[in-house]
Design brief:
- 2 copies of one chain form a homodimer.
- Chain A has helices at about 1-15, 40-50, 65-75, 90-100, 115-120, 135-150, 185-195, 205-210, 220-235, and strands at about 30-35, 55-60, 75-80, 105-110, 125-130, 160, 165-170, 175, 180, 240-245, 250.
- The first copy, chain A, folds into 2 domains: about 1-150, Rossmann fold (3-Layer(aba) Sandwich), CATH 3.40.50; about 160-250, Arc Repressor Mutant, subunit A (Orthogonal Bundle), CATH 1.10.10.10.
- By secondary structure, chain A is an alpha/beta fold.
- Helix content of chain A is about 40%, strand content about 20%.
- In chain A, the strands form 3 sheets. Chain A has a 5-stranded parallel beta sheet, with helices on both faces. In chain A, strands 6-7-8-9 form a 4-stranded antiparallel beta sheet, with helices on one face. A two-stranded antiparallel sheet of chain A has the order 10-11.
- Chain A binds a DNA duplex through helix 7 and helix 9.
DNA sequence: CGGGAACCTGTGAATTACCTGAGAAACGCA
DNA sequence: TGCGTTTCTCAGGTAATTCACAGGTTCCCG
């Protein structure tokens, strides 16, 4: 099942990104991210999704490898599983920080281990997501970390705009033509995904893979359902921006055109 | 006129693209802080949190190292644990002052330590916090020290304003639309954290990590509880300013909008 | 015009996230 | 020491959210 997902994500990576805003370092070179997890399916999933962002990815399966790779790869951000075979996530963090004192870290943790282990981790500006995560969530958090760390161009701001529709990633506010629109968490993530890929058809499989967590086992028509929710809130009584391409997927584009 | 101020005012504030206010030195370079503690977890925690403020951090694990580092790092402020393996905090202070007579020092002390010793020291303009501290507390105290150390006639920008809500970091006074509001210490710190990040969603984990002390092991719903207290005092009978983003966190913003 | 595939959406149940009252414990201060 | 204040736990209540299911609609094709 996970390999099906990989196939979908892979399909996306082979399509050339068009008109997407990319995060770049000040010198114009791509952002570098190190992914550390002992499950190979996870590192592969993440690597492909993050490469799609235009980032350069290196991965490691344990703490030792992570520290070694970090030394010469010099990543701008690290995705780090807290549960590694050879050392504790915190130990890895300590060693990473010795070489790269300013690198922001996105922790991956099990849902139930959050309370005690995470305390203090987000303190420095780091962040975490719980497993199982959605790829959109990981990407969004990473973008936030990189943007705030100063490794990337600071011109990039936190607002997505498509036509008269705006979505602010910091305040989680959405408005169309000035009217504020309240969205639930899932609706917000779905809309963010659409808006980050304007004028591009996204298949239901792709949407499911990026917006829902990787272990989601439900009916594929949740996507239809949530598209329907979004339309009710965003397109209601207006020129529609969310369009169905029968047999292909959905896309968002400015109302005028 | 502005350059006059820059010349006279030792430290000034600017606003970063993310809307956070940063302390900068007159020449625009980042503030430098030296962190001295023998527990590596503490220096790491503080380093990360202070770097996030945009400051340049160097750390040392003992008195000797501190004095050496201070000599060529020339910090604008020092965070100094009173309990060091090789020498007493007072001895370190003496030697630091030989090289940097005006540098303000923030002492870290155990809760039960004799406080009269500290009391004498802080008369000179230094300050202290007790372990275990909260990061917001340390950051706020440091900002105060740095701000005060430089200028006799520095502009008093110790007030945070969001809409008709104001919070004075020096006097700890809070008022909304002119009405004074009494807050407890924890409520004050939580509100300060929210107000220093207006219009930005802060997760419960982030809040817990910055507002509560680093050894807090309790339930995450204290955050909900204190948000509820704040609402009762700040939003009571008015247009609410504190908003819940279900599944994401909380944020504060001006009532109008 | 009929039938099937793809898509849309109303209904409702289960779950989750959040809010808040009550009271215990710890703290601070005289 | 004793009293008021503050912090925090616990637990019940409530409302928002997610999702399955199923019947309806639209579109495409012959």
């Amino acid at each position: 099942m996970l390999s099906e997902r990989l196939a979908n994500v892979w399909a996306m990576t082979t399509t050339s990104p068009q008109g997407r805003t990319e995060l770049l370092r000040p010198d114009g070179s791509p952002v570098r991210v190190l992914v550390v997890d002992d499950e190979q399916s996870i590192t592969e999933l993440l690597s492909m999704a993050l490469r799609y962002e235009g980032w350069q990815i290196r991965s490691a399966g344990d703490g030792t490898g992570a520290v070694q790779t970090a030394r010469d790869f010099r990543p701008d951000a690290v995705v780090l599983d807290m549960m590694l075979p050879d050392m504790d996530g915190l130990a890895v963090l300590g060693r990473l920080r010795r070489d790269l004192p300013d690198v922001p870290v996105l922790f991956l943790t099990a849902k139930d281990a959050v309370e005690d282990r995470i305390a203090g981790l987000t303190a420095g500006g780091d962040d975490y997501v719980t497993k199982p995560f959605s790829l959109e969530e990981v990407v969004a958090r990473l973008r936030g970390l990189i943007r705030r760390s100063g490794a990337a161009d600071r011109r990039s701001d936190s607002t997505l705009v498509v036509g008269d529709l705006t979505l602010d990633e910091d305040s989680h506010e959405v408005s169309r033509a000035g009217d504020n629109i309240h969205l639930t968490a899932t609706e917000f993530e779905l809309l963010r995904f659409l808006m980050r890929n304007p004028r591009r058809v996204l298949s239901k499989a792709q949407i499911l893979d990026r917006v829902w967590s990787y272990d989601f086992g439900g009916q594929a028509n949740v996507v239809e359902l949530y598209i329907s929710y979004l339309r009710r809130k965003i397109d209601a009584g207006r020129e529609p921006m969310i369009h169905t391409r029968r047999g292909a997927g959905y896309l968002i584009k400015p109302a005028a055109s």
